[in-house]
Every structure is written in C-alpha cells, then in structure tokens.
Amino acid sequence: MNDEELISGLLSGEPETVELVRAWMRASFVPYRSRLASDLEDLEQEILLEVTSALREDRFERRSSLRTYVRTYVSHKCIDQLRARARREWLDVDALELPSSAPSPLDRMASTEMTDLALRILEETPEACRELWQMLREGMKYREMSERLGVAEGTLRVRVLRCRKAALELRETLQGKKTNG
C-alpha cells in the first residue's frame, strides 16, 4: 500500500490501516517505554488524533514516508512529554501537612446537634409513626408492612407520607425554637 492509500484509509477509519499506524507508533515507543509506561496508552490516543488531524489538514509535506513521519512524530511527542515531566515541581511528601481524617470540632458539634434534634423529633412523634419508621429501617417493603399491619399498601404509603410531613414540621418548629430561644 502506498502512502496515499494509507492516508485515505486512516482518515476513513479503516481498521487495518489504523492498526498498522498504531503498530508503527508502538514500535516507536520502545525507547521511552520504561519512563512513560503509565502514560503510553493516553499518549498513543493523543498522537493518533494529532497525526490524523495533521493529515486531514494536509500538514504532511511528503518529504518522507508516512511511516517515518509517524515514527518521528511519536519520538518528538515522547521527548516533549519527558521534558514536561522534568519541569514539574515535585513536593516532599514528608513535608506535606495532610488534613486529618477526624471530624473537626465544628463537624462534631453539628453532628451532635443533628443527633439531638433527631432524637427529640423521634420522642415527640406518635408511636404509630415510630413503628412505621422502624419497619422501614429494617428494610421491609411496603407490601410486607401492609400485610403485617393489615392495611392496604396505598393506605400505608399515605400514613408514611403523613408521618414524614409531621416529622418535618416538628423539625422546623424545634429548629425555630432553638434559633429564637
């Protein structure tokens, strides 16, 4: 296959041509494989896109074969990648001050307040609501709950909704007392 046929095949996405160009690229990666190992897959995709764009925009001047052009392109891209790595600013891991995984005092206080609020809401809700929530907490389905309580599933869903609304209203009331009191 001549270069024009290869270019045409690559631009039209013919699998055999794409695989041939990828094989050229992989062969060109060999001298850089150990230093760019973690980046090679991404680099291969990036180079294939750039070579395809260059061919589509007719930037391939045909001074060499397409194979030589691709191999040279890969080599230059790998060198650029290695230079970019050398310019990165590396940090001393031992000198880093990592955030603690423990919750901050503010987070602990907020969590305690939320727990206290939830317990107060639970104390002040009717026993029937607490029973429904306990069943939901145990992972029961509405069908199972309705059978246990001897009510229709739709009725049970309405009860759960009403209990939820009542709990939300109670929360608003208790939070209002806290901020106003």
How are the secondary structure elements laid out?
Blueprint: H1 3-12, H2 15-29, H3 33-36, H4 40-56, H5 66-87, H6 105-124, H7 127-137, H8 142-149, H9 153-180
Helix pairs in contact: 1-2, 2-4, 2-5, 4-5, 6-9, 8-9
Would you write up a description of this structure?
The chain is an all-alpha fold and 181 residues long. The chain folds into 2 domains: 3-87, Orthogonal Bundle (Rna Polymerase Sigma Factor, Chain: A); 120-180, Arc Repressor Mutant, subunit A (Orthogonal Bundle). 75% of the residues lie in helices and 0% in strands. The protein has helices spanning 3-12, 15-29, 33-36, 40-56, 66-87, 105-124, 127-137, 142-149, 153-180. Helix 4 (40-56) crosses helix 5 (66-87) and helix 6 crosses helix 9 (153-180). The termini are far apart.
Q: Any key phrases for this structure?
A:
Rna Polymerase Sigma Factor, Chain: A, 0% strand, 9 helices, mainly alpha, elongated, single chain, 181 residues, Arc Repressor Mutant, subunit A
Give a concise summary.
The chain has 181 residues and is mostly helical. The chain has helices at 3-12, 15-29, 33-36, 40-56, 66-87, 105-124, 127-137, 142-149, 153-180.
> In percent, how helical is the residue content?
over 70%
For the CA atoms, what is the radius of gyration?
33 Å
Q: Can you count the helices?
A: 9
In CATH, what is the class of the largest domain?
Mainly Alpha
Shape: elongated
CATH architecture of the largest domain: Orthogonal Bundle
Q: Oligomerization state of this entry?
A: single chain
Q: How many runs of DSSP E, i.e. beta strands?
A: 0
Order of helices and strands: HHHHHHHHH
Q: Which residues sit in consecutive blocks of at least 5 with pLDDT less than 50?
A: none
CATH superfamily of the largest domain: RNA polymerase sigma factor, region 2, helix turn helix motif
Tally of individual domains: 2
Q: Major sheet: size, sense and barrel closure?
A: none
